[in-house]
Amino acid sequence: MGVVVIDGSTVRSFVADEEQFKKSVNERFAALDLNNDGVLSRSELRKAFESMRLLESHFGVDVVTPPEELTKLYDSIFDKFDTDQSGSVDLEEFMSEMKKIVLAIADGLGSCPITMVLDDDDDNFLKKAADLEASKFEKAYS
């Protein structure tokens, strides 16, 4: 388990490093593409969001949301990703939306640092942003 401190500039630097950001998005896309067909289906993307429990809890407290409301929310998220309305999300669409989401997180953080406790094997974008910043400091001071 590790502790990282990040702010909006940390997250923006991660997105600006196109090679690292693209690699991270490609890895996440591949992990979500359960049937390896090169696109994300509605159910694959929903499973990913369900695993994050973003809509089923409020500040860590479980909330009861009617299933039909959850379906509407997940469908709305899918439609946002599926920009060409093909019924699936390709890597380019996924990358574009993830970039928007990560930059929105950076905007929300602004210049106010936050401390996060993460498992060492945690593979989320904010951890990758912190790791990238740490590697830059390591290089600068070694």
TrEMBL record:
Pfam families: EF-hand_7 (PF13499)
Keyword terms of this UniProt record: Calcium
InterPro entries found in the cross-reference section: EF-hand-dom_pair, EF_Hand_1_Ca_BS, EF_hand_dom
Coiled coil region boundaries: none
The EF-hand domain, residue ranges: 20-55, 69-104
Calcium among keywords: yes
Protein name: EF-hand domain-containing protein
Organism annotation: Cardamine amara subsp. amara
